[in-house]
Automatic annotation (TrEMBL):
<comment type="function">
    <text>Catalyzes the scrambling of phospholipids across the outer mitochondrial membrane; the mechanism is unrelated to channel activity and is capable of translocating both anionic and zwitterionic phospholipids.</text>
</comment>
<dbReference type="Pfam" id="PF01459">
    <property type="entry name" value="Porin_3"/>
</dbReference>
<dbReference type="InterPro" id="IPR027246">
    <property type="entry name" value="Porin_Euk/Tom40"/>
</dbReference>
<dbReference type="InterPro" id="IPR001925">
    <property type="entry name" value="Porin_Euk"/>
</dbReference>
<keyword id="KW-0547">Nucleotide-binding</keyword>
<keyword id="KW-0007">Acetylation</keyword>
<keyword id="KW-0626">Porin</keyword>
<keyword id="KW-0406">Ion transport</keyword>
<keyword id="KW-1000">Mitochondrion outer membrane</keyword>
<keyword id="KW-0496">Mitochondrion</keyword>
<comment type="similarity">
    <text>Belongs to the eukaryotic mitochondrial porin family.</text>
</comment>
<dbReference type="GO" id="GO:0046930">
    <property type="term" value="C:pore complex"/>
</dbReference>
<dbReference type="GO" id="GO:0000166">
    <property type="term" value="F:nucleotide binding"/>
</dbReference>
<dbReference type="GO" id="GO:0015288">
    <property type="term" value="F:porin activity"/>
</dbReference>
<protein>
    <recommendedName>
        <fullName>Non-selective voltage-gated ion channel VDAC2</fullName>
    </recommendedName>
</protein>
<keyword id="KW-1134">Transmembrane beta strand</keyword>
<dbReference type="GO" id="GO:0005741">
    <property type="term" value="C:mitochondrial outer membrane"/>
</dbReference>
Amino acid sequence: MAIPPTYADLGKSAKDIFNKGYGFGMVKLDVKTKAASGVEFKTSGSSNTDTSKVVGSLETKYKRSEYGLTFTEKWNTDNTLGTEIIIEDQIAKGLKLTFDTTFSPNTGKKSGKVKTAYKREYVNLGCDVDFDFAGPTIHGAAVVGYEGWLAGYQMSFDTAKSKMTQNNFAVGYKTGDFQLHTNVNDGSEFGGSIYQKVSDKLETAVNLAWTAGNNSTRFGIAAKYQLDQDASISAKVNNTSLVGVGYTQTLRPASVKNSPVWQSNTTMSTPCTGNEADVCYLSPHLCCDLCLSWLD
């Protein structure tokens, strides 16, 4: 039996079919590069075409694999600084400790998190403590698996209010080409998804959600078809007659261009066809993930 996924990754294959390859209303650019010393740099920027708001971030990462250490420094355009230290497989096999802090010089606001994760065959556990001046918040999750069956539980407890703020559980079944996932959130939100890999080129997914006290049911169908090893097309439709279509083209290894198209009822937008991804050829060590989106 393989190691079960984390609670957040339950039903991930179906989520990816619905979410990846689309990016309506956003222009996003991610650039990654790695220095000869082993330091990794990642910068990203995005612009919302509706609000014209632009945000960006810069991240540097350095790994010492022999000690299981990873150091990460972060900065964003909100002028928030962050530091993350990860220790993995040192204290015990499968145990990962993360220390995450942020500081905003403009407001003086500070935050800190301590995260623990432990994974072995049949079990995947996680416990995070989010520190706050009013009192820490504790987040916990556990997933167990046996012969393809998966069961998980997720909770959050606010010590300042002595109140359980999140109480979720999920059950699923997973094989090589089929996944079934159901979940209940806080006893009021019910959801389920089915993922099926029909062939080497075609993947399909169905998603269903319902909220207690609300008669509306959310339903969607999505599919992804691999045209060849470098190109794929994605499509999805939901019960409100919204249709999404996306085309993804790999220009070269580690460089991807997405061209989403959105159709609502009878109105469809048309993507441009310029050379937006020329930035991918700036450096032999530079790669980017460029997603241009159009929204009526």
